[in-house]
Amino acid sequence: MSATDNWPAGYDRVVLPRVDSTMAEAARRVGMLGGPTWIMAHEQTEARGRRGRRWFYPKGNFAATLAMRPAASAEQAALRSFVAALALFDTFVTVSGRAEAFALKWPNDVLLNGGKVAGILLESAGQGSRVDFLLIGIGVNLAAAPAQSEVDPGALRPVSLLSETGAAVSPEDFLGFLASAYARYEAQFENRGFPAIREAWLARAARLGEPVTARMASETVTGTFETLDEHGNIVLATPGGRRSIAAAEIFFS
C-alpha cells in the first residue's frame, strides 16, 4: 500500500511535474486554497533555500511546500518550523528504520550521520500582528546531494538518504508519510501549544549541551547549547552570561 493511501483528513495535495519553485507556486495559489495544501513538484527550475541561496535539486529528490492560513500571530506561525522538523524526523525514521542516525539542527535543518539531508524554509505575510498565510517549504536530498564545493564554506557536508542509509523512496511516497506526520504534530501544537513541541524537538536536537557558534549579522557568539526558550530561540551559555538568540547561522565547533 502506498503512503498516499493514508493521506490525512483536512489536507489537500497538488503534485506537479515541473515548476519554478514550490514556494513560488504556493504563493500564487494560497489565496485560492480551501484549506492547508501540500504542493509538490518533481522538478524545480529555480529552487532556493534560506537567504535566497540556490537549492540543489536533481531528479529523485524531494521538494514540497505546505500552504496554510493559520489563525495565528506571526510568532505563533513561525513556531511551525519546529512542527515541520519533527514531522521530517519521524518520516525519515519511518522510511529508513534508523532513528539513531538523525538529529535536528537549530533552526531548521535535519542531519543524517552528521551531514545535512534536509532543510525547511518559512515565509509568511500579513498585516499587523496576524499572518494571512504561511508557507512551509521543505527540501530533502532523497537520492543525491550536492558536492561540498557547492555549499558555503564551513557548512556541514551535504548527504542523501540513499547514500547514507540505502533507503530508496519516491518523492510521492515521502510526501504521504510526511503529510501524515505533520498532521499529527500540528494537532498536538493546536491542542497543547508549543511546550510539547519544544520538548519533543529538544529530545532530537543535535549538539545539545555542547559548544556551538551562532553567527549573526552584527556579531558572532560561541557558547554551550543549553535549550530552546518559549519562543523557539536558541539559548547559549556564554562567558558573558546566557544568550537567547532569535536568528543566526549555527556552526559546530
Describe this structure in words.
The chain is of the alpha+beta class and 253 residues long. The chain has two domains: 3-202, Bira Bifunctional Protein, Domain 2 (BirA Bifunctional Protein, domain 2, 2-Layer Sandwich); 211-252, SH3 type barrels. Helices cover 26% and strands 28% of the residues. The chain is built from six helices and twelve strands. The chain has helices spanning 22-29, 74-78, 80-96, 161-165, 171-192, 194-202; strands at 12-16, 37-41, 62-68, 102-105, 109-112, 115-125, 133-140, 211-215, 220-228, 234-238, 241-245, 249-252. A seven-stranded mixed beta sheet has the order 1-2-3-7-6-5-4, sandwiched between helices. Strands 11-10-9-8-12 form a five-stranded antiparallel beta sheet, with no helix packed on it. It starts with 11 loop residues before the first strand and ends with a strand. The model has no long low-confidence stretch (mean pLDDT 93).
Summarize this structure briefly.
The chain is α+β, with helices and mostly antiparallel strands and 253 residues long. 26% of the residues lie in helices and 28% in strands.
Provide the fold topology:
Layout: E1 12-16, H1 22-29, E2 37-41, E3 62-68, H2 74-78, H3 80-96, E4 102-105, E5 109-112, E6 115-125, E7 133-140, H4 161-165, H5 171-192, H6 194-202, E8 211-215, E9 220-228, E10 234-238, E11 241-245, E12 249-252
Parallel strand pairs: 1-2
Antiparallel strand pairs: 2-3, 3-7, 4-5, 5-6, 6-7, 8-9, 8-12, 9-10, 10-11
Helix pairs in contact: 3-5, 3-6, 5-6
What attributes characterize this protein structure?
SH3 type barrels, alpha+beta, BirA Bifunctional Protein, domain 2, 26% helix, 28% strand, 6 helices, 253 residues, 7-stranded mixed sheet
